[in-house]
Each structure stands twice: as structure tokens, then as C-alpha cells.
Amino acid sequence: MKTVEILTPRLLLRTALVPDAELVQPAKLAVWDELQRWMVWAYDDQIGLDALRAHIVRSLEVSPWQFLLGFRRDTGAFALAAGLIATDEGSYDTGYWVAADQRRQGFATEACNAQIRYAFEALRAQEVSINYFAGNDKSAAVIRKLRFPFERTVRGAHSSCVDGSPVDVHYFRRETSEELPPLDVSWR
């Protein structure tokens, strides 16, 4: 099985493997309330360890970069979950969530920057998209830091994982890695 490793100055992003579920699950549970507010996948049936394992298996069947885990290079601690999802030929969506004890250190920005560079340079992406739900100011800040061009807002584009209410989604898309903040990144 092919795996991916992406190195940044502070992070190792690598393909999620089934045994990683045991490590990631406590971090996921610690931020579950927020994940339900801000993620498209965080419905009640996704809270359990078996659901996480199944997600890893499905992701591995698709690609080694669909579900990536980020670990601090200095301590080895789990920092975030991320990934690239192919939406069309040459088009990818990216996203992430950060462990509660690893927030406010710029890891989301660093990981997304690295993933975007990987998509354009290694996967030959034609475009990379990212979005955030209305009210998710932390994700909006990451997108601003990465200088993503705004594309559109779609009113009620998602149904809340919490109560099914409509949520506005703000979409951003870029067609090149130019204008990203500088980042020393490599992969294998």
C-alpha cells in the first residue's frame, strides 16, 4: 500500500492507517461538539471508534492523501487531521481539524499550506478549494492567511450535523500555489 509523508518545519503529515484510530479517537471526542458545528461529516453516527476505522479504510481505498494525520516533529504529539479529496479530474478540496491541546500555534495554516503545495506540485492539481461554514471564524482566518481567492457564498448549502438547520457555506478556490505564504515543505 502506498502512503504519503509531507514534511514541514514543524509537522509530519502522513497517511492515516487503521491502527491510528486508537490515537485519534480521544482527540476527536475532545472536540466533537465543534466538529459537529463545522464539519460536513460529523453526524452522530460518526462519533464512534468503529466509524473512524471505517473512514480510514474507505480513505485508503481511494488515495493515500485523502486522510492525513499531522504530528508535531518536536514531540511526536498528534496535532491535526487533514486531507485532500479529489472532486473532479485535477480538482481537490482540502480541510482539517485541530486537536484541542494543539490549537493557536498555526498548525492548521501550516498543514493546509503544505497540502495545497502537494496537490499542485505532486498531484498536478488544476485547482484546490476550501470552504468554511458561516460563523467559523477560526477557519476563515486560516483561509485569509493562505490568501485564498473568494469564490461565492451559498445560503443554506449544508444541513447542520447538530440539528439539521441550514448553514451558509463560503467557498474559496485557487488555481496555483503562487501567493501562498512561504513554507519549506517536502514529501515522499
Could you give a quick summary of the protein structure above?
This protein is of the alpha+beta class and 188 residues long. The chain is built from five helices and nine strands, in the order E-E-H-H-H-E-E-E-H-E-H-E-E-E. It has helices at residues 21-30, 32-38, 49-62, 107-121, 137-145, and strands at residues 5-7, 11-15, 68-72, 78-88, 91-98, 127-133, 150-159, 166-174, 186-187.
Which tags fit this structure?
9-stranded mixed beta sheet; 188 residues; alpha+beta
Task: Give the SSE map.
Layout: E1 5-7, E2 11-15, H1 21-30, H2 32-38, H3 49-62, E3 68-72, E4 78-88, E5 91-98, H4 107-121, E6 127-133, H5 137-145, E7 150-159, E8 166-174, E9 186-187
Notes on the structure:
With 188 residues, this protein is an alpha+beta fold. It contains five helices and nine strands, in the order E-E-H-H-H-E-E-E-H-E-H-E-E-E. The chain has helices at 21-30, 32-38, 49-62, 107-121, 137-145, and strands at 5-7, 11-15, 68-72, 78-88, 91-98, 127-133, 150-159, 166-174, 186-187. It has a nine-stranded mixed beta sheet, sandwiched between helices. The longest helix has 15 residues, at 107-121. The protein is globular, with a radius of gyration of 16 Å. The mean pLDDT is 95.
